[in-house]
Amino acid sequence: MHDIVAHSLTVVIVQADGAAYAAANADRWDRTQAREVLEVIGATARSALAEVRTVVDVLRDVDTRDVDTVSGASHDGQATGAELRRLVDSVRAAGVPVAFDNHPATFDALPFRLRFVVLRAVQESLTNVLKHAGSPVDAEVAIECTADDLCLRIVDDGPGRHVDGPSTGTGAGHGLAGMRERVHELGGQFRAEHRPVRGFEVTAVIPLNTTVGERSAA
Question: How far from chain centre, in Å, is Cα 88?
Fold first, then answer.
C-alpha cells in the first residue's frame, strides 16, 4: 500500500505544483500544457485507485486468494513488463528523464515474485528521485540477467539527499527497508547508497533459480 500511494501521490503533487507555478508565473496559460498535466494526474490517480482496490480485495478475502506472503499482492496478472514501462513513463511525464531499455516479453518471462520485487524496487526508487533528488536530475533503470542472477540498478545524478535511510535500508522511512526485505526474501543482495559526488544508487542482485513463490501470474 505504501508503494502504491507514495509513488502515485508524489507524481500527482509534482505535476500539480508545476502547473500551479506555471499558472501563476507564465506569460499566458498554455491550454495544451494544462491538458497534458491534467491527463497525467488523472491517469496516475486511476491507476493508483485500481491497485488500491486490488489490495483491499486481498485483505477482504485473504483466505481464498493466492497471495504473495511478503508483498500481500494477489497473483492476478500484475507486475508485467507493460506495467513497468507505464511506471517509468509516469516519472518521465513528471519531468524526470529516465533512461530505460527493457523488452516487456523478457521481463514477463521471469517468475511472478521476481517481477514483483523488481517492479516495487523501481517504483520506490523513482519515487525517491522525485521526492529527494532535487533538480536538475537524470535517472537510469537497468535490468540485466546473467546465467544465474537478475541484476537491478537504479541511479540518479541529482543534487539532493535521499532521506529514507542509510545503505542498510534501516532508516526512519519504510521504502528502502521494504525493498531490502523483499530482495533478501528471495535470497538476493541489496544496497542503497549515496554516490561519491552527487546522486543516489540502488542495486540488487537476485538469484534466478529462487524457488520461493515461483508460480506465474497466469
Answer: 8
151: its cell numbers: 541484476
Distance CA 44, CA 41 (A): 5
> Whole-prediction pTM value?
0.64
| CA 156 from centroid of its chain's CA atoms | 14
- Amino acid 34 reads A
Contact indicator for 102, 143 with CB cutoff of 8 Å: yes
Is residue 205 packed enough to be buried (19+ CB in 10 Å), middle (13-18) or exposed (0-12)? middle
CB-based contact 41:122 (threshold 8 Å): no
* Rounded-to-10 torsion of CA 53, 98, 14, 123: 30
Tens digits of residue pLDDT in 56-107: 655 554 443 343 433 334 344 468 998 899 889 888 988 889 999 877 778 8
Residues 6+ apart with CB under 8 A from 26: none
User: How does pLDDT run across 9-35, given as a tens digit for each residue?
Assistant: 777 777 777 777 777 776 666 667 777
Rounded Cα gap, residues 111 and 213, in angstroms? 8
What is the pairing mode between strands 98-100 and 200-207?
A: unpaired
Angle of CA points 56, 73, 129, to nearest 5°: 100
Spatial strand order of the sheet with 189-194 comes to 98-100, 139-145, 149-156, 200-207, 189-194
Amino acid letter for position 169: G
Question: Integer distance in angstroms from the first to the last C-alpha of the chain?
Answer: 23
Contact 51, 4 (CB under 8 A): yes
β-strand pairing of 200-207 with 189-194? antiparallel
